[in-house]
Design a protein that fits this description.
CATH class of one domain in chain B: Alpha Beta
Number of helices of chain A: 19
CATH architecture of one domain in chain B: 3-Layer(aba) Sandwich
Number of helices of chain B: 21
CATH topology of one domain in chain B: Rossmann fold
Radius of gyration of chain B: 23 Å
Helix content of chain B: 40-55%
Shape of chain A: globular
Number of strands of chain A: 13
Largest sheet of chain B: 6 strands, mixed
Structural class of chain A: alpha/beta
Helix content of chain A: 40-55%
CATH superfamily of one domain in chain B: Nitrogenase molybdenum iron protein domain
Strand order of the largest sheet of chain B: 1-13-12-11-14-15
CATH class of one domain in chain A: Alpha Beta
CATH superfamily of one domain in chain A: Nitrogenase molybdenum iron protein domain
Distance between the termini of chain B: 16 Å
Strand content of chain B: 15-25%
Shape of chain B: globular
CATH architecture of one domain in chain A: 3-Layer(aba) Sandwich
Largest interface: A-B, 79 and 73 residues
Radius of gyration of chain A: 22 Å
Structural class of chain B: alpha/beta
Number of strands of chain B: 16
Oligomer: heterodimer
C-alpha cells in the first residue's frame, strides 16, 4: 500500500492543540512556522462546521513564526521571549509550549524552555508535536499526556459517582461540543456526576478534578485508552470503555445499561429513562414514515470513509436501527497497527447475519475515490467528509457528512448523540435521499 | 524589478522586492522611503501565527485544470487545502476548467521521522509515480516544504528526472514557510512555476488584455470598457483552463487584481513577451478607474475613447454617488487589508468622504515586478494625490491590530480574510468583509461599496449586544499597552 496520502482527512500532530484549546483557560504557544496552524485550522475548524476555539481563536495564538534565522541560530530563546510576553498579555490558566517539525529537526529544547518558567504567574508545560511523527490524534494524545504528567496532582479523595469523559476528540469529532452537552445531561439523568473538561461551562477546574473520579469513561474504539491507562497507573482510577459514541435507541440503551451495571446505579430509574427515551424516538420516527415510503427508492447499503470513531457509531446505527448494510468501510485516520484488530471487531459487532463487507485501513483518503470510480453499487449512500461529496455525486450516491472535514457549514450545537441524535441522523439521512434525484426517483 | 525565470524557483519578496512586514508611521513616509530604497523592516518580540507562503503556492497550483500536486512534506502541510476544494465553491469561479466537478488532486509524500534522517527522495519518486498511475494527469507540480528544505532534499532534480521518465511535464515550486514572512511569496512561487510551464510563445499579438487574479467575478464592471477600446479580456484566475494560459502572451496588455497575487505573473508576461503591465494605477473606485483608463488609452493612442468611457461611467453613477457621500461624510474607518487593497480602500473611503483613521497593510512592497520604473500604486497615490494616512504593516498580527483598533475607535472596520473583522465585532465594533478585484472597478464599484457600508451601519444591534457580552481573554497589561509596542528597532533586510 502506498505511503503517500491523497485527500488528507487529518491534520498533522499540531492539530492536537485543538484539544488544549477546547479546555477553557488553556493556551498553547506554538514554536512553528507562521502557517502551520492555519492548515490544521482549515481541516479541523473552518471547513469542519465553521468552528473556532473560544476564547483563544487561532488568530491570537502566540507563535514564534519559526523562520530561517531560527534554523541557523536555534529558536529556543525566541520561544522563551514569546512565552514571557504571553504570560504578560494573556489571561490564561495554563500555557502549553508546543513545537512542530522544524524546531524538532533543529533540536530546540522546548522542555527546558517550559521548565525555566517554574513559579511563573501562569504554569507552563510542554508537548512535542512534530507532524512527521504523527497526525492530530497523536497530537491529541501528546497534549493529554503532557497535562496528566506535567500538571495534574493527586486530589487525595475519590468521588465514586464522578466520571471523567474521554474518547471524544474535540474539533476533530465535528459534533464534539453538542455531543458532550447531551452526554452530560444523560449521565446526570442516570445518577452519575460527569466531569467533562472540554467546551462551554467546563475548563481547567474540571482538569484539576480528574484524579478524584470514581472511574474514567472512554467512548471510542481506541482513542484515549492510553490516557485511561496512564490515569489508572498514576491515580489508580479504573476505566470503562464503550467502543463508540452511541447513536439511536439500540446503542444508547446498551450504553446506559452497561453504565448502570458497571457503576451500580439505580436500575429502575435508568430503565424508566430508557423507556421514555425510546418511546420518544419511535414517536418521531413514526411521524416520518409516510414521507419515507412514498414512491422513493430507499438505499439498503452504504459506504463509509473517515475516522474510526465515526465509523463505529454510524455503522452500529445504520445496521442496528435503520436497517442498512455496509458495502465497504475505509478508516482513514492511521489507527495504530496494534489497535486495528479492535476497531475491526467493533465494526463487525452488529446485528447482521451476513457480514461480508470489507474494512480497509489507509491514510490515503484518495483510495476510496479511486476504488469507487472503478466499481460501485448504484444508488447507494456515502458517509464521510467533505472530500467525499463530489465522489458521491459522481457515482450517483447520496451523501451524508459525519466527520472532519465536515464541510463549510455552521455546525451550531448539532450532534447525533443518543436517542435524539438518532432522530437527527435518521432525518438528515432520509432528507438527503429524498432531495437527491439521482437516488430517490423511481419513476 | 525583473523576475528571474532562470532560477529554479522565485526569490522571496523580502529578497526580490525589499518588502516588509513591520512598520508604523505614515503612508507618505513609508512610500517615500520605499521609492528611495531606504525602507527598513521592524521585527517583533511578540507574534502570533497567521498564514504561510507554502499553502498559497499550493492553493493556486491545485486549481489548475488537469493538474496533480505533490506536496513533499509531512502529513498536514497541505491538510488545509480542503478549504479550496471544488466541493465548497465550484460555482464561484465561472469556470471553463474541465475539472470543475472533481476534487483537487493533492498528494502528500508523508515525510516521516526516519525520512528526516535518511532522506525522502525515494518517497518523492514513488509518490510521483503513484499519483501519475492513479490520475494520468496532463501536468504535475512538486512543491517543497520547510521539512524537505531543511533536510536538504533535491526535489527539483527528482521532478526533472521523473518528468523525463513519465513523459509528462512536472513543474517545481519551492515555497517553504520558513523562507518568507510574506505569504504572498507563495503566489510568486506559483506564478514562477506556471510562467515556466504553461506560458507559450504568441502566434500573433491581439487586441487582448489579460487579467490576473483570484476570480473573474465582477468582469461586467470592466469588460465593456475594454470592448470600447476594441479589446477582449482573457482571465488567468481560479477556474481558467490551460488554453487561457497558452494564449496569455498574445495580449498587448496585462493588469492584476493586486500587487500581492498578480505581480509576478504580470511581470513575467511583460518580460518574456513584451505584454505591457499596467500596475501604477489600479482601476478601483472613481479616481482609480479614471487614471487607469487614461493611462491605458494614452498607451494605445485612444485617449478620446478613455474620456468617453469616463464621462459615461461618471454620469451613470453620479446621482447614487452623491447620495452615498452625503450619508457617509465624516464616518471614521479603520482598514486592515493586503498590501494593495489596504491603500486602494484608503483612497476609495476618502473618495466617499469618510475619514480613514488608520490603515493596516499585511505587508508592503516598495516595488513590484514591472520592467518600468513606474511606482507601486500606493506610492503613486502619495506622489499624485498627496495621499496620506496613519498606517502600520503587520503580517496578520491580530494582537497588534486589535490594540491599534482600541486606540482609534472607528465607526466601522473594513477588512477581509485574516480575522480582524471577527475581533472587531467581538469588541463591539461594526465590521465589513469587503470585495477585492474586479467588483471594485469604477464608480460602480465605489457606489456599491458605499451603499453596503450604509446598510452595514444601519443596524448595529448585533455587534453592540455581542460586544457587551465579550469576556476579554487578555490582561490589563495588554489592554493598556501602546500600539506597536511589539516592534523592535528597524533593520535593513
Amino acid at each position: 500500500m502506498a505511503e503517500c496520502i491523497e485527500q488528507s482527512r487529518v491534520a498533522c500532530a499540531l492539530g492536537g492543540i485543538y484539544t488544549a484549546l477546547a479546555i477553557d483557560g488553556v493556551l498553547p504557544v506554538t514554536h512553528t512556522g507562521p502557517g502551520c496552524l492555519a492548515q490544521a485550522a482549515d481541516i479541523l475548524g473552518r471547513v469542519n462546521g465553521g468552528q473556532a476555539p473560544v476564547p483563544f481563536e487561532e488568530s491570537v495564538i502566540p507563535c514564534t513564526d519559526f523562520c530561517n534565522t531560527d534554523v541557523v541560530f536555534g529558536g529556543g530563546e525566541h520561544l522563551r521571549t514569546v512565552i514571557e510576553k504571553t504570560i504578560e498579555y494573556y489571561d490564561a490558566k495554563l500555557i502549553i509550549a508546543v513545537d512542530g517539525c522544524t524546531a524538532e529537526i533543529v533540536g530546540d529544547d522546548i522542555e527546558e524552555v517550559a521548565e525555566s518558567f517554574e513559579g511563573s504567574r501562569i504554569p507552563v508545560i510542554s508537548a512535542k508535536l512534530p507532524g512527521f511523527v504523527g497526525n492530530n490524534l497523536f497530537g491529541h494524545s501528546q497534549i493529554l499526556k503532557s497535562i496528566v504528567n506535567q500538571y495534574l496532582e493527586p486530589t487525595g479523595e475519590v468521588n465514586p459517582l464522578q466520571v471523567n469523559v474521554f474518547g471524544i476528540v474535540p474539533f476533530y469529532d465535528t459534533f464534539w461540543q453538542g455531543t458532550l452537552e447531551k452526554l452530560e445531561e444523560l449521565l446526570k439523568a442516570i445518577g452519575l456526576e460527569p466531569n467533562i473538561i472540554y467546551g462551554h461551562g467546563h475548563g481547567i477546574e474540571n482538569v484539576k478534578k480528574i484524579p478524584s473520579a470514581g472511574f474514567n469513561l472512554v467512548l471510542s474504539p481506541w482513542i484515549d485508552l492510553d490516557i485511561a491507562k496512564l490515569l489508572e497507573q498514576k491515580f489508580k482510577t479504573p476505566y470503562l470503555q464503550f467502543d463508540n459514541v452511541p447513536i439511536g435507541p439500540t446503542e444508547t440503551t446498551k450504553f446506559i445499561r452497561k453504565l448502570v451495571e458497571y457503576a451500580g446505579l439505580d436500575q429502575v430509574r435508568a430503565e424508566s429513562y430508557i423507556k421514555k427515551s425510546e418511546d420518544r424516538y419511535y414517536y418521531y420516527i413514526s411521524r416520518h414514515q409516510a414521507f419515507v415510503y412514498a414512491c422513493k427508492y430507499i438505499p439498503k447499503d452504504f459506504y463509509f470513509i473517515g475516522s474510526a470513531s465515526a465509523a463505529v457509531s454510524v455503522t452500529r446505527f445504520m445496521v442496528n436501527d435503520v436497517g442498512s448494510v455496509p458495502l465497504r468501510i475505509y478508516i482513514t485516520d492511521n489507527v495504530p497497527k496494534d489497535r486495528q484488530e479492535d476497531v475491526r471487531k467493533s465494526l463487525y459487532d452488529v446485528e447482521l447475519e451476513e457480514k461480508d463487507y470489507e474494512v480497509i485501513f489507509t491514510e490515503d483518503g484518495g483510495l476510496a475515490a479511486a476504488d469507487l470510480r472503478k466499481e460501485h453499487e448504484d444508488r447507494s449512500v456515502v458517509f464521510g467528509s467533505n472530500w467525499d461529496l463530489l465522489t458521491a455525486r459522481s457515482i450517483g450516491s447520496a451523501f451524508v457528512p459525519v466527520c472532519a472535514p465536515y464541510g463549510q457549514t455552521l455546525i451550531g450545537s448539532k450532534n447525533y448523540f443518543g436517542y435524539e441524535g438518532g432522530v437527527a441522523l435518521f432525518s438528515d439521512y432520509y432528507g438527503e435521499i429524498a432531495t437527491n434525484p439521482q437516488v430517490a426517483f423511481i419513476g | 524589478m525583473a523576475v528571474n525565470l532562470n532560477l529554479q524557483t522565485s526569490e522571496s519578496r523580502e529578497t526580490r522586492l525589499g518588502s516588509i512586514t513591520g512598520y508604523h508611521g505614515s503612508l507618505k513616509e513609508m512610500a517615500t522611503q520605499g521609492c528611495q530604497g531606504c525602507l527598513k523592516n521592524c521585527k517583533r518580540d511578540f507574534s502570533t501565527g497567521c498564514s504561510c507562503s507554502h499553502s498559497h503556492c499550493l492553493d493556486q497550483l491545485a486549481g489548475l485544470e488537469g493538474a496533480v500536486i505533490i506536496d513533499h512534506s509531512p502529513v498536514g502541510c497541505s491538510a488545509g487545502l480542503i478549504g479550496y476544494n471544488r466541493s465548497l465553491n465550484n460555482k464561484f469561479y465561472e469556470s471553463k476548467n474541465a475539472d470543475q466537478n472533481c476534487n483537487l488532486k493533492i498528494f502528500s509524500t508523508n515525510i516521516r521521522e526516519q525520512d528526516t534522517v535518511f532522506g525522502a527522495s525515494e518517497k518523492l519518486r514513488n509518490t510521483i509515480q503513484f499519483a501519475y498511475d492513479r490520475h494520468h494527469p496532463k501536468h504535475m507540480y512538486v512543491v517543497a516544504s520547510c521539512v524537505s528544505a531543511i533536510i536538504g532534499e533535491d526535489a527539483y532534480s527528482i521532478a526533472e528526472e521523473m518528468s523525463e521518465e513519465l513523459g509528462v511535464p512536472i513543474g517545481y515550486a519551492s515555497s517553504e514557510g520558513i523562507n518568507s514572512k510574506i505569504w504572498a511569496s507563495g503566489f510568486d512561487a506559483y506564478c514562477h512555476s506556471v510562467s515556466k510551464a504553461l506560458l507559450k510563445e504568441p502566434k500573433e499579438k491581439k487586441d487582448q488584455v489579460t487579467y490576473v487574479g483570484f476570480y473573474p467575478k465582477g468582469r461586467d464592471h470592466i469588460e465593456w470598457m475594454f470592448e470600447r477600446f476594441g479589446f477582449k479580456m482573457l482571465f488567468l484566475t481560479g477556474g481558467s483552463n490551460l488554453d487561457d494560459f497558452a494564449r496569455a502572451s498574445e495580449s498587448k496588455a496585462v493588469f492584476g487584481q493586486c500587487g500581492a497575487q498578480s505581480s509576478y505573473l504580470c511581470g513575467a508576461l511583460e518580460q518574456r513577451f513584451g505584454v505591457k503591465y499596467f500596475q501604477s494605477h489600479l482601476p478601483y473606485g472613481g479616481i482609480g478607474v479614471e487614471r487607469f483608463l487614461r493611462e491605458f488609452g494614452a498607451y494605445f493612442g485612444k485617449e478620446d475613447i478613455a474620456e468617453e468611457i469616463i464621462k459615461e461611467e461618471k454620469e451613470t453613477y453620479a446621482f447614487r454617488l452623491a447620495k452615498v457621500k452625503k450619508k457617509l461624510a465624516g464616518k471614521k474607518v479603520f482598514i486592515a487589508l493586503g498590501a494593495s487593497f489596504a491603500y486602494e480602500y484608503t483612497r476609495m473611503c476618502k473618495e466617499l468622504g469618510m475619514e480613514v483613521i488608520h490603515t493596516v497593510a499585511y505587508h508592503y512592497d516598495p516595488h513590484l515586478d514591472n520592467e518600468t520604473p513606474d511606482k507601486v500604486a500606493a506610492a503613486t497615490d502619495v506622489y499624485e494625490l498627496d495621499q496620506d494616512v496613519a498606517t502600520s504593516v503587520n503580517d496578520g498580527q491580530n494582537m497588534e491590530t486589535m490594540i491599534t483598533l482600541k486606540h482609534n475607535k472607528p465607526d466601522i472596520v473594513i477588512s477581509r480574510a485574516h480575522k480582524a473583522s471577527a475581533w472587531a465585532v467581538r469588541n463591539g465594533i461594526t465590521a465589513l468583509e469587503v470585495r477585492i478585484g474586479l467588483p471594485m472597478v469604477g464608480y460602480r464599484g465605489l457606489v456599491e461599496f458605499g451603499e453596503l457600508v450604509i446598510k452595514t451601519l444601519a443596524n448595529t444591534n448585533f455587534e453592540r449586544k455581542f460586544g457587551a457580552r465579550f469576556k476579554v481573554p487578555f490582561t490589563e497589561a495588554y489592554l493598556n499597552s501602546e500600539p506597536f509596542s511589539f516592534m523592535k528597532e528597524a533593520q535593513n533586510g
